[in-house]
Amino acid sequence: MCAHRSVVCMDDRVTELETTVSELQSTVRGLTEELVETKDRLRELEAELDMDAVEADGGTVVEATTETSIDGGDEEDADSPEFDDIIVA
User: Fold this and answer.
1) What is the CA radius of gyration of the chain?
2) Cα(73)–Cα(79) distance, rounded to whole angstroms?
3) What is the DSSP track for 24-67?
4) Which of 10, 40, 52, 59 is the most exposed place for a label (fewest CB within 10 A)?
5) Mean pLDDT throughout 9-36?
6) Which residues make Cβ contacts (< 8 Å) with residue 77, sequence separation at least 6?
7) More confident of the two residues 10 and 4
C-alpha cells in the first residue's frame, strides 16, 4: 500500500488517529453532558413524586427510596462484610 513512502503513510496514520481521538473526546463530552442533564431531570421527577406522595397521604411525610443494591436485593445486603472492599464512585 505505502511501501515506498512509509514515512508519509505513518504521518497519515497519525493524523487519522488524532482525528479519531478528537472525535471520541467530543462524543464523551457530549454523553457526559447528557448524563448530567438526565440525572438532574431524574432528581426533579423524584422530588415531584415525593411531593405527590405527601399530598396523597394528607400531608404525612412518606419516606420513599429509589435506590436498590446491585443484585436487586435489600439494601441491608450492601452492608454485609462481603461488600466492604467495593468502592462505588
Assistant:
1) 25
2) 12
3) HHHHHHHHHHHHHHHHHHHHHHHHHHHHHHHHHTTT--------
4) 59
5) 96
6) 69, 71, 83
7) 10
